[in-house]
Amino acid sequence: MLGTTMAGASGAGTVGIIAGTGGVIGTVGAILLTPVTAIIGGGLAVGGAGFEAACYFTDERITDYSEVLAIMQHLDENHSTERFQLVRGIPGRQDDAIRVWNPETEEFDRHLVADLYLVNGRLWANRSWRRDQDLGQLLFVQPAE
Question: What is the pTM of this model?
Fold first, then answer.
């Protein structure tokens, strides 16, 4: 957009004058537009962070190791060992793990309980620097009487 302004504002027929005028107009335009861009970008960033914070505090989160471990113990007691296994570690250390059957690789995936958390009933594995892995929705099903 500034390129068209440069040619239109110059009015001179030579390329050298247009280029010289364009440098001045481009510099002035950049100085004038930078604060506006920064203010708009900052406003969007703050608004987006506020929206994320609102969602973060309204979600039901279970991140405490003992609570997650209790849920994993319940799953271990009530599910087939062909699909889910809880592997107990050394007592007093948080090194318990789960093994979940992965039909894509036809192998068990291993996840430390310390890396697991639940959000609104969905089990997630924390992958630190990569995107967290969704392990699935946990549902309570009343046994048939």
Answer: 0.57
For residue 128, the model assigns a pLDDT of 72
Structural domain contains residue 50: yes
- List b or e across 105-138, with b for residues whose CB sees 16 or more CB atoms inside 10 angstroms: eeeeeebebbbbbbeeeebbbeeeeeeeeebeee
| Residue 49 pLDDT level (bands cut at 50, 70, 90) | low
- My answer on whether 50 and 112 are in the same domain is no
Mean pLDDT, residues 96-118: 94
CA distances (Å), 46 to each of 58, 63, 87, 88, in order? 18, 26, 43, 43
